[in-house]
């Protein structure tokens, strides 16, 4: 009873305070009324507007994405029609010997593979030919022995339409086409009596991935129905079969013609939208069901929670507000007591809010000074970021005055000053055997530090830009006193070159730009540097290029390309001779260096050589993207600037993987057989040799040798023999004074036949060829 009276007196003393009463009533109002109003507002207005907006967004997204899916199917149908009219798919396939005419068989397989890879929705492509012994290429050739399978494929030839998505039941009952989505096209495309068909099977996984985009929420489901409302494909799992049936029933009973409706299933509300595709021979319906209750239920729950909590606060607000108001009143009372009675606090007294405000203000002042100090330390980084933004074009819309003002804010003095750029490019890294590729960023960092240490001794305003790719730039702001570049720039370039040679053991190419006094022209200095430094000599030596002294360096360049050496390299690649290929690549480089070895010319020629090798790889039936595991080989090659590095890259990264793959996937004995015959031809081309005689020489049959020749060298035996003889005849025509008939006999031909075959291969008779070459020399 005594404690109750003490508490009552304590509360009474505070309630008599005007400050306490106002604080109490204000907090009570703030904690109760807004919660009730917001809860009711969210429940009444938020739920309905959210549902309407979600349905509208759902319908709009489905329409746009369905049009994209329809366009992909249209493109697939057009592509199939185009291929059905391919001249290769003609009646000659009925009598074609697929074994003997293996080249034509290979071309058919390649065409099917190209069609299969022409569209992401295609899973596989098959070609059925109804001949005496029906065959199926898928893409490999298989004879169809089973009568039921024959009947299934032959049913495609009796369809009224050449191309259709709706196949006969006899075909769809085949094991490999059950539960598959297929489109077929009779061949030839316009003949009433077709003899075959192209069957394209849709990749359900890719199609399902596209269908999933029609439903913007992860809990939704998408259906694809045929004209009989049978499910072709759905993105649902087995747990949602009941949902699929419910959607199908609701779809059939929907008569609103708005292509959208709302349905409930298992305590969830779904927004369902649908539409149709006009497919060849069929009409498909797409259906998308998205759960909007999953989105709106949190809104309902939150609004109810807010409403219940707000009502509860009416009961708890008094007690909570009393504690809060007492806490707010305590520092006021303490301040009044201190001012009135000069009350002295003891050391254990708790801090009031005014003390905390004062201490906080002092802390903020200290923090502000600390931030200002850090900001001054970040000025160099801000300058670098400004130059990067300027060169990338992000500041293109800024005026010259605004850019100048911005530079002045970074501490630059630009009035009566001009801007110059110096580029440093390291070379010879590959020769530095103690360095690894992962050390490039560390080496570049060291080079940038060396450049900065030397620059600060000669210039006041500069910014070092580290590109982290064995190159760096230095941006200078120098007084515009003369029309020429400052002599100290050349001095700095020589000092940087010497320091890097001694410290890093690498060579340096330094390019000095022209100068400009316009901030908006600075990005052109970077472009000028990028163009100009490509005209360095492609030798591992120190170079300093002054672009201000160069009038038109490109006019002095003439491209020399060693085509003959390129042919030798390709021959080595074909025969799998890596060491010989490397030797010829070195000759290739030697030729380029001797005939004006500017980097721009060398890089262009190397790119051309790589393109030729890649063409050879494609000609061999291989995909370079697969062989090199998706690497951007052109990008890698363009970043290499060392001669030896490029040679090793071409040998180790381009040629060796290709030859290794070929050797691992080709009969080694067959390759050795062809190599032995090639050597025999080189030694006896002037004699009367034939395919049979060469086959006897190596102990095999003419057929086996012909097949091996075509597979290994991608050329017929007689064509290769003719090429060897004609090449030797050309050498004799140019290097000797022998008569035409003597040359013909020396390369294994009769005179009259030699003239005809020479003109067929070269385009002109032997005598005219000798005359043309003598006149040109």
The total count of strands amounts to 16
Order of strands, main sheet, comes to 3-2-1-6-5-4
Helix content percent band: 55-70%
The residue-averaged pLDDT reads 76
What is the SS-derived class? alpha+beta
What about the largest sheet? 6 strands, antiparallel
Based on CA atoms alone, the radius of gyration comes out at: 42 Å
Number of distinct helices: 27
What is the general shape?
flat
Percent of residues in beta strands: 5-15%
Low-pLDDT ranges: 339-354, 551-556
The total tally of domains equals: 4
End-to-end Cα distance: 130 Å
Task: Characterise the protein shown here.
- The structure is a single chain.
- It is built from 27 helices and 16 strands.
- It has 777 residues and is of the alpha+beta class.
- It folds into four domains: 17-318, no CATH class; 379-554, Reverse transcriptase/Diguanylate cyclase domain (Alpha-Beta Plaits, 2-Layer Sandwich), CATH 3.30.70; 563-664; 668-776, Arc Repressor Mutant, subunit A (Orthogonal Bundle), CATH 1.10.10.60.
- The strands form three sheets. The protein has a six-stranded antiparallel sheet. Strands 8-7-11-10-9 form a five-stranded antiparallel sheet.
- The longest helix is centred in the N-terminal third of the chain and has 67 residues, at 18-84.
- It is flat, with a radius of gyration of 42 Å.
- The termini are far apart.
- GO terms for molecular function: DNA-binding transcription factor activity; sequence-specific DNA binding.
- The chain crosses the membrane at residues 24-46, 305-324.
- Keywords: DNA-binding, Membrane, Transcription, Transcription regulation, Transmembrane, Transmembrane helix.
- This is Transcriptional regulator, AraC family.
């Amino acid at each position: 009873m005594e404690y109750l009276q003490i508490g009552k007196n304590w509360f009474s003393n505070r309630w008599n305070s005007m400050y306490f009463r106002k604080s109490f009533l204000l907090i009570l109002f703030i904690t109760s009324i807004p919660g009730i109003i917001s809860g009711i507002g969210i429940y009444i207005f938020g739920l309905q507007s959210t549902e309407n907006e979600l349905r509208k967004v759902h319908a709009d997204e489905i329409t746009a994405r369905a049009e994209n899916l329809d366009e992909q199917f249209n493109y697939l149908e057009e592509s199939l029609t185009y291929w059905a009219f391919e001249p290769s798919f003609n009646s000659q396939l009925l009598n074609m010997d697929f074994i003997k005419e293996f080249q034509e068989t290979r071309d058919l397989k390649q065409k099917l593979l190209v069609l299969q890879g022409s569209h992401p929705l295609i899973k596989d492509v098959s070609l059925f030919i109804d001949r005496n012994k029906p065959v199926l290429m898928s893409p490999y050739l298989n004879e169809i022995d089973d009568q039921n399978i024959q009947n299934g494929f032959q049913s495609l030839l009796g369809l009224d339409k050449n191309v259709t998505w709706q196949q006969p039941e006899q075909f769809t009952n085949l094991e490999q086409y059950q539960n598959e989505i297929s489109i077929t096209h009779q061949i030839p495309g316009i003949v009433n009596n077709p003899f075959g068909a192209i069957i394209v099977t849709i990749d359900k996984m890719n199609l399902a991935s596209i269908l999933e985009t029609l439903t913007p929420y992860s809990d939704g489901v998408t259906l694809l129905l045929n004209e009989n409302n049978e499910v072709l494909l759905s993105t649902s799992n087995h747990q949602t079969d009941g949902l699929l049936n419910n959607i199908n029933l609701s779809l059939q009973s929907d008569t609103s013609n708005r292509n959208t409706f709302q349905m409930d299933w298992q305590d969830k509300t779904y927004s369902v939208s649908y539409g149709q595709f006009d497919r060849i021979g069929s009409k498909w319906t797409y259906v998308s069901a998205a759960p909007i209750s999953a989105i709106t239920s949190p809104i309902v729950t939150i609004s109810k929670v807010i409403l219940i909590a707000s009502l509860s606060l009416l009961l708890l607000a008094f007690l909570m507000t009393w504690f809060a108001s007492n806490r707010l009143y305590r520092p006021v009372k303490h301040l009044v007591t201190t001012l009135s009675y000069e009350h002295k606090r003891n050391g254990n007294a708790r801090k009031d809010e005014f003390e905390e405000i004062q201490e906080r203000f002092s802390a903020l002042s200290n923090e502000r000074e600390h931030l200002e100090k850090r900001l001054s330390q970040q000025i160099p980084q801000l300058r670098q970021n400004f130059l990067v933004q300027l060169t990338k074009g992000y500041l293109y819309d800024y005026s010259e005055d605004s850019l100048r003002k911005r530079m002045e804010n970074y501490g630059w003095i630009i009035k009566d000053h001009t801007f110059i750029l110096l580029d440093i490019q390291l070379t010879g890294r590959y020769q530095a055997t103690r360095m690894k590729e992962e050390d490039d960023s560390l080496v570049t960092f060291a080079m940038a530090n060396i450049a900065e240490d030397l620059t600060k001794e000669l210039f006041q305003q500069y910014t070092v830009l580290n590109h982290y790719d064995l190159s760096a730039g230095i941006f200078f702001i120098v007084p515009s006193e003369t029309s020429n570049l400052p002599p100290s720039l050349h001095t700095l370039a020589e000092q940087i070159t010497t320091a890097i040679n001694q410290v890093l053991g690498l060579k340096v190419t330094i390019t000095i730009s022209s100068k400009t006094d316009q901030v908006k022209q600075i990005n052109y200095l970077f472009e000028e540097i990028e163009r100009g430094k490509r005209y360095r000599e492609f030798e591992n030596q120190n170079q300093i290029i002054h672009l201000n002294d160069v009038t038109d360096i490109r006019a002095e360049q003439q491209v020399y390309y060693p085509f003959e050496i390129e042919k030798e390299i390709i021959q080595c690649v074909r025969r799998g001779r890596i060491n010989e290929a490397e030797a010829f690549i070195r000759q290739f480089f030697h030729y380029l260096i001797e005939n004006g070895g500017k980097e721009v010319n060398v890089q262009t020629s190397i790119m051309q050589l790589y393109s030729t090798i890649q063409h050879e790889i494609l000609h061999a039936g291989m995909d370079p993207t697969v062989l090199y595991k998706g690497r951007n080989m052109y990008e890698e090659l363009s970043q290499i600037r060392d001669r030896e590095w490029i040679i090793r890259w071409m040998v180790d990264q381009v040629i060796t993987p290709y030859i290794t793959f070929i050797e691992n996937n080709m009969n080694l004995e067959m390759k050795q057989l062809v190599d032995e015959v090639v050597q025999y031809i080189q030694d006896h081309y002037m004699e009367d040799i034939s395919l049979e005689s060469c086959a006897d020489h190596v102990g095999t049959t003419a057929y086996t040798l012909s097949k091996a020749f075509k597979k290994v060298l991608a050329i017929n035996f007689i064509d290769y023999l003719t090429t060897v003889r004609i090449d030797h005849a050309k050498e004799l025509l140019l290097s000797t004074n022998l008569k035409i008939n003597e040359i013909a006999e020396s390369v294994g031909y009769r005179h009259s036949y030699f003239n005809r075959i020479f003109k067929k291969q070269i385009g002109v008779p032997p005598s005219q060829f000798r005359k043309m070459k003598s006149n040109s020399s």
